[in-house]
Amino acid sequence: MNIAFLNSIEKETFGGMEEWIRLVSTGLIDRGHEITLIGRKESEYLRRISQAEDRVRIEPLDISGDFNPATIVRVRNIIEARRIDLLSVNFNKDIRLGGLAARWVGSIPVVWSVGMNITKDKAIHRWLTPKLVDRAIVPSASLKSEITRFGYIEPAIVDVIPIGIAHREFRRPDPESRRALREKYNLPQEATVAVTVGRFVYKKAHEFLIDAAPEIIAQHPEIFFLFVGDGVKRDEYRQQINRLGLERHFILTGMLDSIDTELAGADLMIHPAKDEPFGIAILEGMRAGLPVVAGQVGGIPEVVAEGETALLCEPCNSVALAQSVNEFLDDRPRMERFGRKGQRRCREQFQLDTMIDNVEQAFTRLIAAGPGLMTTGRNPGRGRNPVKEYQ
Asked: What pTM, to 2 d.p., does this model score?
């Protein structure tokens, strides 16, 4: 197969969907398939994946507007020049740019690889999305339910394929990793470190953890909070931390190419998100043997085993979050048990090879079937031109 991934994520952002593309690209290349990445020029998406996997082919674009004719032509030219068999798209913008380009070619199926719910109950979405997408892949049953709620995406064409990650051995306890993390950030060796991994955006809800911190620190003054990531709310979070006088207890690391040191040396993962379709950061924390405190939202209950690998609390509730964290910190043996069970759950239920198997099979079936409308089964590439129809 010759697969292209179109992702118009902002230049400075690299999140869970981009990591999914990295994992799938590498896995498919290892199996003999060819991968092309289409994205914004000088984007973290293209830089990070091509740096980690030098066998991918890169096609940087100037992307603007949902229906920019020049971009549609450029994507069509890439599809034809690279002899692409299937196009995977991400955002609504990508559905329109990539979908119209693929329909213009006429024989390229389009799969919507959905990382978060971006469906909208608007006429343009209801009319155009079913015409431009042949199938969808989501990481959780929760997200499937969300994207089909308006009725223009048929549940039957949505495949739930949980994310899998490569198995790695993280020892617990690991005095060397613990010491390395504390030295890296100039923390006391006896410090307890809670790590939070995620973009600084509205749905990740870091502000509720910051609000919960005074109550946690009051009972556990040795704790430090490590925020790994970056985003539009960075300055807002910094101001909130300063306003509460918590500067000593918070470290904002920025974007990191590798978080192995942070996960291996931490004691606890806190994931306060108010909206989380899956939670690949949680999965990575479990792999590292970290007990998890998270909001009971989205796909998180499908990733963790509540009461065994994680404590789940009401989202957007700083009091409940503080209570759950303190409950853990008051019982260190329990934290260790949760961490061990999390490692086992990650290893047994979220294997990378299983995910690649399922994605490969889904792509193969779609290529064999060819493009067709989501809701009617008709083939838009035969007998008419959907690009001209749209115009």
From this structure: 0.88
